[in-house]
What does this fold into?
Amino acid sequence: MAGIGIALSKGRILAEAAPLLARVGLAPREDPERSRKLVVATARRDVRLIVVRASDAPTYVQYGAADLGIAGLDVLAEHGGAGLYQPLDLGIAACRMMVAVRRGFDYARAVRQGARLRVATKYVHVTRAHFAAKGVHVDLIRLYGSMELAPLVGLADAIVDLVSSGQTLRANHLVAIEEIMPVSARLIVNPAALKTKRAQLQPLIEAFAGAVR
Ligand code: ADP
Ligand code: MG
It folds into this structure.
């Protein structure tokens, strides 16, 4: 496709990326939050936004269906990052990926005793790698949302989820016990597009870098 496509998700990423998009001259022509359109024009005729699920952004960029994208490090770590150039931390949508358990659950003791922990998460690859590195045995339960519910109803001993204020954890009688990684959203680029469309993409990447500063 001619022109440049930028894959990003509605919700938190779009809300926090909107000021950056405006600063680099890419304000959407209609609000993706309210429009049903999945391809949205911007202030620049040659650049369009491609509205995807947060976890799908790396895939669209990897296959070149979008030239650029905005994705959280959580999603990138889980995706693996293959076929993606990641030139820039946008510093938005900041939070932490953490292990959390029900208040009162003795995690240290369970680990010491070598018990198999049941861990619910949507980040199964990252979670498996994290516990393998610690030598903790886990049974992973893959969920697609509301991880906080799992320990409450006995589905899991622990969850791996994103935490910012901690309010959701507190409201559900959970405590964060271990940080896996700090998370923020990154600009991602299709490497082949960077070669074939360098004249358009390089200045855009630099404009984003300037807008972050
Ligand atoms: P979804 O529910 O489809 O995953 P969200 O808008 O909740 O969409 O999350 C999209 C991205 O926003 C996540 O991949 C992460 O990078 C970031 N994010 C999610 N939760 C938080 C949070 N509590 N604080 C800051 N950023 C977050
Ligand atoms: Mg969410």
